[in-house]
Structures
1.
Amino acid sequence: MRAPSFGVIALVLIGATLAVLVAVSGRERAAVPVAAVSAAPDATSVAGGGITLTSTAMELPDDAAVFPEGPNVDLVNQRCLACHSTTMVLSQPKMTAQQWQAAVEKMRDAYHAPVAEGEVAPIVAYLAGRQGS
Amino acid sequence: MDRLDFDMARALTRRRLLAAGVAGSGAMLAAKALAADVDLRLPGGPSRRAMTSDFPQKGAMILQRVRPALLETPMEVFQQSLYTPNDRFFVRWHWGDLPTSIDVETYRIRVGGHVSHPLSISLAQLLRMPRIELAAVNQCSGNSRGLFQPRVPGAQWGHGAMGNAKWMGVSLRHLLDLAGVRGGAVAVRVGAMDKPLVAGAPDFEKSLGVDHARDGEVMLAFAMNGEQLPLLNGFPVRLVVPGWYSTYWMKMVDTIEVLPAPDDRYWMAKAYKIPSTPHAHVVPGTKDFPSEPINRMNPRSWITSITDGATYGYDPVLPVEGIAMGGDVGVTRVEISGNGGRTWEAAALGREDDRYGFRRFTARIGVPRPGRVQVMARCTNARGETQPMAANWNPGGYMRNCVEPITVRLS
C-alpha cells in the first residue's frame, strides 16, 4: 500500500527538484510557492462517473525548532518533540504547575510519551517556569 | 522500541520521505512563517499565530502546530466564500505518522468484523457505486477552545477549525449492505492510515452506532467541492458524518469494522468525552461528572464582514454579513442585535443547499451616532435551540456555541 508507484516517485522527484531550483535561485519563497505536491502527467489515476482520482504524494514541512532555552530544556526536547512540534506547547495558555503536571501525565499515560517517572518533575518545572507560573 | 526520542522521530520522518522517493536537500522544508501573522484575540494569550503557506495543497493558513499539522482557516475566508475552498480548509491530525503518498490503484478499503461477506474495495469500485452528495459543515469538537474562560489545555483554536463543503461519495449504508451486517451488530468502527509514532499508543479510530452508520447520509467521500480531497484533508476517502463533530470524520479511511459490542477503545471510551449536561456545561474546575462521547453539533453564527476591535468610517447604517449553522438540523432564523442584546431583529437568510451546511445572513444596523458599537448574531435551529448568551465550560474545551459579540468603532 505504501510502496509508491513509479509515477508517484517521478512526481515527487520533480517536486523536490523544483524546490531545490527555487532554493538555488535564491528567490523568495513567498513569491514562488514550493511545489510540495504536483500531479505529474504520468501519475496513475482511476476514474468513474465523471470523477478522477489521481495518485498524489506530498512533502510535509518539517519543524526543526527546539524549545527556548531554560532549565531541563534538553530533556523537554528529547521527550516532547517525538510526537509533536514546539508550536503546540508554546501556544498553550498560562497554566499552573499542577495543570502542567496533569498534561505531562496525560501525554505519558494516554499517548505513551516516553517519560520516565523521575522526568515528570523536571519537565513540569521547565513548562511552568517558562510561563513564570 | 522502548524509547523514542526526538532524533528517532526525525529519522522516522526521514524514512517516510525516502520511501516516497524524496532525497536530498529539498526534503526538509522548514515551516517558515510568512511575514504576516494573525491575532486570534484569545483571553490572556498567547494570541498571535504565524500564517503559513508551506503545507502541500494549502494556501495561507493560521499555523497552530507544524507536526502533526494543525492549520486554522482565517475568518476572512468565510466572508469570501460560503463554501470553504479546499486549499483553505482547516487541517487537524492526531498522530505524526501519516502516509505522504497515496497510490489510487492499490488503495483498498476493508469492510469486516461482524459481517457476512468481508470486502476489500478498490477506489475504482467505489467510483462505480451509487452516489450521494450533500453540503455539510465539518467543525472540530474544540473549535473556539482558545476562547474558553478559564482557559483549558489543548489546541488553542480561534473560530477557524471549521469549514463548509459539498461532499460527494458513497453512503456507508451501501458498503455495509454489500458486506451484510449480521444480527446483533451495535457499532461500526472506522480506522485510517495515520499511525502513532510511539509503540503501544492508541491508534486513532472512531465509532458510530450501527443505525447512525446506516442512516444513508453518513458517507465515504471521495470528492470535496467537486475535486479530490487534499491529502491533508483525508485523500483519497474520508468519512462524512453530517451534523456531527469532525472527530468522527475519519481521514484516509482504510478499515470499516462492524462490532457486536460497544467500542471500548481509547478514542471512544476516554477521549472526546463531554459532560452529559445541557450545553455540555459544568462549573469551571469540575472534574467528576457523568459523561458521554461528543456527538451532534449545536447552532452557531459568526459575523464575518466586520472584525472585532476594528475601526470603520461612520455611516448611520452599518451593513453586516455572516454565516450560520444549525448543527445537525437546519437554520430556522438568525437575529441581530446592535445594542448588546437588548433588542433583536431578524436577519435575511441566504439559500439553504442542505440543512447541514453554512447559511449566509445579512442585516443592516442603525447606528445613531459615531462611537463604539457592539454587534451580535444569534442562530436558532429547526429543533428550536437558540445560541445562549453565556459561554459553556468543560475541561475538554468542547462545543462552544454562545453568541460571539463583535465590537467595532465607527468614526
Note: Residues 1-30 of chain B form one domain.
2.
Amino acid sequence: MTDLLEVGGNASSTHSFGQDARMVVDGARRQVAQLFDVRPEQVVFTSGGTESNNMAIFGALAASAHKRIVTSPTEHHAVLHAATAATQNGGRVSALKVDRNGLIDLTHLRALLAEGDVALVSVMAVNNETGLLQPVADIAAACRAAGVLYHVDAVQAPGKIPTRLADWGADMVSVSFHKLGGPKGVGALIFRAGVNIPAFIHGGGQERGRRGGTENTLAIGGAGLAAELAAESLADMPRLKRLRDTVEGAVKRLSNEIEIVAEGAERAGHVSCFILPGIAGDSAVMAMDMEGVAVSSGSACSSGRVTPSHVLMAQGYPEEVAKCSLRVSWGWNNTEADADTFVQAFTKVWHRLNKENTRN
Amino acid sequence: MKKPVYLDYQATTPTDPRVVDYMVPFFYEKFGNPHSRSHVYGWNAEAEVEAARAKVAAVIGADPKEIVFTSGATESNNTAIKGIASFYKDQGNHIITVQTEHKCVLDTCRHLEQEGFDVTYLPVEANGLLDMEKFKSAITDKTILVSVMAANNEIGVLQPIAEIGAICREKGIKFHTDAAQAFGKIPLDVDAMNIDLLSISGHKVYGPQGIGALYVRRKPRVRLNALINGGGQERGMRSGTLPLALIAGFGKAAEIAQAEMAEEHTRLLKLREYMYEEITKRLPAIILNGDREQRLAGNLNLSFSYVEGESLMMAIKELAVSSGSACTSASLEPSYVLRALGVEDELAHSSIRFGLGRFTTKEDVDFAVNLLADKVQKLREMSPLWEMVQEGVDLKSVKWAAH
C-alpha cells in the first residue's frame, strides 16, 4: 500500500495520473469481486461498513413502495440506527425474535414477511460480539419467496466463513476492509446482479453513479489486497479455532460460573464472548490491559460508554449480566504463546477481581 | 514513458511526502481504534485523532469540537445540505445555491427537489462571480439554507463568502460553503465570515484521499440530521470507525497548509500570472475564463479559440490537465460551469483548466507554455476558420450552408 502513496491521481481524470489511479481501483474491484465470486461491476466502494449499511437500508426504502424494515435486535448499531433513522418519516422497524444464542427465529421471519409492507430484511452473517452465524441462506430463501430484498451486514464474515454470494442468496452485502486486515476508511456494498437502489451519497457520478466522491485510491488498493488475503485467513481459521477452544477450555476450568455466549450454536472460530458473573466488563478489560492484553467488552464502537451489550440484552440476558461480558478475538498475528499469555493473565485477573467481589 | 507534467491540482493534489512519512507508522505500530476506550492502542489513537482535529480547526479559526471527520468533501456536502434540509424543514423548504457549484452539491439539491424542497440555482456573471443583488432578491421567508462554494473547482473564482455570510446571519438562514478548493489555499475564518457549515477535502490540500471534514458551528448552534447512522461517533453526526492513518495524514496536511499558505500563495500567484502573460504574449485570441483578481492563485482556465477541443487535448498529452472538472472529464459535454458564464459551446470545448500547486516549478510552466504555443499555432494553421479570421472575415456574419 505504501507504493500506492506514489500513485496519487484522481481516478476520474483522463490523463495518465488519473489512469494509474483508475487501474488501482479497477484491480481492487476485481479482487473484492473474487472474494464474493461476483462480477466487478457488482462491487461499489464506500467509506466503510457503516456507510454500506446506511446505503443499503436508505436505498432499499427509497426504492420500495413498502415502509417496513425487518431486522434482528442483535445487529450492529450501524444497522439498527440506520433503520431507525430511515423509517422516522412514516416507516417502522420490526425486530425479529432471537433465542438465547442470538439465532433468529425463521418462523417469525416468515410470519413478518407474510404480513407484508416489508421493504428490506437486514440480518448479519456473523455477530461481532459473539461470533454467532445466522442462517443466511435460509433467510435469503424466505425473502426471495416473499419478493423482499435481503441485506447482509457481512463486516465480520470475510476470512472467517466462506462468502460466495450465490451460496448466500443475498441481494446486498456490506463489507468493511479494516476488519480483514485492510485499511480503515474503505468498505463496499456488494450487489446481486440486477439489484439497484438509488444513490446514497450524491455527486460526481463515480461508481457508475451509485456513490459520489473521489475514489479513495490508496485505501481501495489496500482493500483489494485485504480481500485477496481473506482467502488465506479463511485457511488459517481452523488454527484460530483451536486457539480459541484451548482458551475457552482453560477459562471454563477456572470456574463453572463463567459462561460462553452461544457456545452450543454455530459460531465463527475467531471470537469468544465470556460472561463473568459479578465482574463488570470494563473492569475486566482494564485489568487485562494492565497485564498487557488488549481485549474489549461489548463492541469497540460502544465501549466508550459503560452500557450493557445490546446484543446480550436482546438474547435475554438481564442488564447486570449484559454488563459483564468480555470479548476476546483472535487474528492472523496471534500465536499459541498469545493464548498462553491470555490464560495466565486472565487467571490472575479472575482471582483478583473475584476476591474484590467477595470482600465487597 | 516519461510522466506528463502534472497541472491538474484542482482534480487532486499529490500527497505531500511529509504527510506520507507522517502517516505510514499509523498503518503499523501506531494502529488502534480511537473508539476503544479501555486500552492503550485506543487511547493513543484517540489522542492522534484529536490532535488532527485541532490542526484542521486551526486553519479556519474553528473550535476542534466543531470539526466532524467524513470520507471527503462529497460526503460533507451531502451531510450538510441534506442534514440541514431535513432538520429545519419545519421552518421552510427553500434552498439557494449557484449554477456553478460542484456536481455533488447540485446533485444533492436535485435530490432534495424530488423530496419537495424548492431550490434556486442562481446564475453568475460573465466573470463567474455572484451578483449580490440577485442573491439578496432570491431570499424568501421560506429560505432555510444557502450553499455557495468558496472557490470554484473549474475556474477558481472566489465568491464573496463574507458578504453572503453576513446577510445569512442577519436573516437567520444557515450558510454552508463548499471549501474543498479553498481550504488551506486562501484565508478562511468561520467567525469573521459568518459561516455555519464548511466542507473540506483532504486530497485537495496535499493530504490523502478518502478523508475530509465538515465544520458545524456550535455557537449559535447549528443542528443537522446525520447522513450516516450507527455507533454514534463524531458526536452522532457521522458514525463509522475513524480511519486513523487517513486522519493523521489529513491533520499533518492541514498543519503544513496553514504554515505555508501565505508563502505558497505568493509563489503560485506569480507563477500563474507569468504563465498567463507568456501564453497571451505568444498566442492571440486566448480567453481567460473567470475573474482574474478574485481567483485561486493556482488556477488558470483558458479558452483557445479556433482550435478543436479534442485535437488540442491530444496535442498536449505531455501535460496532465483537464478540460473541465475531473468528475465530468470523461464526458464530452461542455462544462456546465463555463456555460453558466455564457461561454459558447464551441469555445467551452477548447477550454483547459491548468491547476498549479505546491510542486509546480517554473520549468514546468515554461514547458507547458512552449508546448501550447507550438501546438495551438499548428492546429490553427490547419483551421479554415482561423484562416478566415486572419483574412478579416467576421465569423458571426457568415451564413453557413446546411450539408
Note: The mean pLDDT of chain A is 91.
